[in-house]
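Quick entry between incubations.
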Amino acid sequence: MTSKPSGAAEARAYFSQLQEIFDESAIANGGPLAFDYMLAGERLQLRFAGPSLLPQLLPSLEHLESDLSAPAQLTIHIWDETSSVTAIPPPPWSWESYMSRGEIGAYDRDKYRIWFDIGTGLFSMIDLESSQALLWVRDPDRLPIYVTAAPFRMILQASLSQRGLFFAHAAAVGNDNGAVMLVGEGGSGKSTTSLLCLAEGMDFLGDDYCLFDTESAPSVHSAYCSAKLDPDCLQRLPIFQPMVNPGNDLGEDKALLILHKDFSSQLVSSRPVLAILVPSVTHQEATTIERISALAGIRALAPSTMQQIAGPDARAWRAIAGLARKVPSYRLKVGYDLKQIPGRIESLIEQLV
Amino acid sequence: MESSQRFALNEPTVIQELIDGEAIIADLGRGFYYSLDPIGSQVWGALVCGWSQSEIIEALLERFPAEQGTISQGIAALVDRLMEEGLLVVRDEEALPVKNAGEFLASISVADFATPVLAKYTDMEQLMLLDPIHDVDETGWPNEPGEEPGN
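Done. Structure below.
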């Protein structure tokens, strides 16, 4: 990857051009429309040039809406090509530095972070010094449900990591005493486990992604009130069927659930982390829990977290290792009597408090 | 590899953590990570502090005198492997080991010497994968593979 530290001026100029286009589009569309949130104790403002992207980018954050008592610590300006008065100019960088995570590695990562998802046509850019970010959608009709489920993830990661907060590819559930983070590759059972726990009255902090910090005592923070379930699991958990996001084609791989309206009292903002829990499906009836090594916990959490979100960020790696050092790791051996799962997790929490 | 050479961590892309007596080393430049067993972890700790291979062997022989051949070969093989994987670099300047032989040996909790094993994990190797885009339309933005430029 070639990085151009001297390209900061080029990146700054491009950012300014895009900001002007956003401002112009906002005026033309009757905006900007501003929405304020508290995310892991950080003040976030989303500014939309017009209403077209609201149904796709706001639902997962509903539970975090807040009246900000002070200026936002991060502001994201959002618009799409259809509402844009002026087409955005060609980017100044070479596409030779395009990485598998969609990141453009052309500039100093301490100043600017840039991503373009070729599949969705979604462009993100953040100026880390000013804490201003841009999100441009090339074609709103191409936005898949995983963007609605977890919007602004890369921008949020880049900004929040400066304050010691990191996204984990993990679910998190708990109670007043604390929470466990459910980690593992896709298909390992994180979603089913977390939603079973939610249905049984446990606190819920995330299905696929949550934030964590380890500066003092490890804590997990909610980012999204969404969940994704495949059609088979949705059939087995009919309580969630009314929460399927409108417009979600159930013929797709997974259904998107927005949980805020029906579970608002259980969607808590933060909890102490008591354990890392790695679900694995067994062919036995009973669900059991066994202690595993810190390395096993890291192996379940780090690869997907680093590859999907953090990238080659030493701070994220150290945070993951720090979490595994500070809290025990366990394997949740899930049996086919799924009703046992929430009780087993609650028992573990009580043991660890 | 000269047994009197001293080494340093191949920073900044290689970082290390010690958790429950196990060294976990990450090469974020290539997307690989590694773990070492307890003896290997202590040897690793001594190496990055500036101990030479011969000093480590000499200290271990004090503790495990019957294992001369095993220790010499095992430590030499480990150092070679750590260098091959790019986790260590030869240290230019003289470095004083931050702990003495007694402290090093006290940190080894096993009763018997076992050849240290470096385990390598490659399930994070997509981390730095470059995926250069060559199909860009007239607006300067890439097309999805299979799309005709300009559509």
